[in-house]
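To: structure subgroup
Subject: Chain for Friday's discussion

All,

I'm putting the inputs and outputs inline so they're searchable in the archive.
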Amino acid sequence: MPLDSVHKRLLDQLKTGVVLLDNKLRLLYINVAAESLLDISESKANQLFIGDVIFNAEEDILEIQTALVNNASFTKHRAELQVMHDKIIFVDYTINPFEENGETQALLELKSVAHSHRINREESLHSAHITTRELVRGLAHEIKNPLGGIRGAAQLLAQENKDIELADYTNIIIEEADRLHNLVDRLVGSRKPLDLKNTNIHEVLDRVRSLVEAEVSGHGINLQCDYDPSIPPVLADPEQLIQAMLNIVRNAMQSLNSPDIDHELGEIMLRTRVLRNVTIATNFYRLAASIEVIDNGPGIPENMIDTIFYPMISSRPEGTGLGLPITHGIINQHKGMIECGSKLGETKFTVVLPISESKN
């Protein structure tokens, strides 16, 4: 059954992988989502036996064949499949046989379990951030009012007081009130709208690198870059993006200064790559830019990995727990996503930003 261009465009908009099979389980068509899942292009997959696309899957292939023979739908949850390039995927799949011109064919639907989990986690995190932000903004208002009064009173006292020693105390009160005011502002986050423009992410990362080079000097930390020069510009606010990436890199630097480090040289890698056929939240993008910040530090405690993007959560006693939540907010404003994976000896933060397709 040949597909016309309209049907193909519609199927390519789906987040679910769609595979069309003939009665001999040869691939007649796969959509873009299936290309991404199976790690193979439609042109290469065409007319291949399904066993040449998913490997060591005799049981699954037998179930698909049985569904075709019995003309009955079949669903399997959390199937572990080995696909091209030794990639392992976990999917829920459904096989739906149907008749076409007297021949039995089948529609195979593939839903990534990892993708569903990521969407649910992002939605939960986003909802929690909205609730937390509103709570913090209300609390910030209640804190700023007395802080303003304390600072004003200290200024008046400093003007009336002629004792130099006592002036030191009033200065401390003013400075600490200002410090708390700035801390509250950071906690609330900026309400300034993004100044979006076509941005070279490597210029952003080079700016971050120049800002932290002096900080890593003499601390046994080696900062490396592995850039993909083919990445086109992304629509972003350069200053906000610099702040977001700076927070992640500084977080890596601080982890490498941990007493738990069991090696002499700390390493931070800034790596960029082009991603194809990416779904961020519920939006599909043909192209996206991936920015990874990888360090060889002690890792994030397992009991904290799911909460590091929440405000006031920090594994360091001196940490404020504000850097990563601010970063998450900035990336979210850019319609991107940020993920973290960590184990002993490696922590990797991955920022994914959509790349707008050219209208030309």
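Points worth raising on Friday:
The longest helix spans residues 113-160.
Residues 27 and 301 are 45 Å apart (CA to CA).

D.
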